[in-house]
Amino acid sequence: MATTERDLYEVLGVPRGATDAEIKRAFRKLAQQWHPDVNKDPEAPARFKEASEAYQILSDPERRQRYDTFGRAVVEGGPAGAGFEGFGGFSDIFDAFFGGAATGSARRGRPQPGSDLRYDLRITFEEAVKGTEKEIDFRSLARCDTCSGSGAKPGTEPTTCPQCEGRGEVRSVRQTMLGQMVNVSTCPRCRGEGKIVEDPCPTCHGEGRIEGKRTIRVTIPAGIDEGHQIRLTNEGEIGPRGGPPGSLYVAVHVAPHPTLRRDGTELYYDARISIAQAALGTTITVPTVDGAEEVEIKPGTQPDTAIRLRGKGVPHLRRAGSRGDLHVLVDVEVPRKLTKKQRELLEQFAHESGDAVAQPGGGIRDKLGLG
Fold first, then answer.
1. Engineered SS bond to 92: which of 87, 262, 326, 336, CB 3.0-4.6 Å?
2. Residue 361: what pLDDT?
């Protein structure tokens, strides 16, 4: 199946105005689908080669422009030939897209990085809103002072791995119907580091690190919320034999407030007032993260009224100086039991208002104001 029989954009399944990223993504998907080592369909080699040839032209801005202007004939003889010019063979295609083959230039062995760590930190509601600093203690693998992290006994040095010659990887070459395939894997002797320790350090036994207790201070930004994580780069475990450290992730857990509820940067407070307070007006005390505050309830306040206290909410994490609001949600509480005097006063109020109310022990007609 030759690419001359189909439009190259059609081969990759992208429109003519596709971006470089879309073209690369389309080719990667097709390569994963049709590579002969993965797909045993008899048609797979041809489909893989067709996609590779199309990608070679469309991924090169100059050749793509020539193709768009003059067609395939002008760019014939380039990537269609054996070896796929620009990739240097199928091995380069796999290295570029899957990281599984060599590109002709050896990677030098590198020490393995250390592991990332997680620390669960619990803070109060007020600390989450205002921000704070916390000192945390945890155990992790740190650099061995005896060997300075090399893993070798003092006075000695790690030596180049004889199996991979310091590359940290070993390769095997095999011939396929589509050309030469180079498979690359981590060197089993040095574990990809390119160095081996012949005479290990007596303290860390060649690891270059030992477990110990660490104490660091963590800055908790104002406005942080439950489940947020703070990443501290290079504060995780040190890698073996001088490898770079990982990161420390501080997972924040916020204790709930006894009366305030949070939704993002907004705070909510449920205020219960009596019928008399709602009708006549009053002043109530509302808790805020900055201290108690007096709030006026105006005469005639209705149930489900919301009073907004601007700037009394939670600070925005990414907008310095900006805070949400505190919403006071007013709930008018109807008493379930009344004293004789209270009932008389309410009945008098109902009479003045022209409202029909049920009488004590009255029937359904009385309760409906029909008696």
1. 87
2. 60
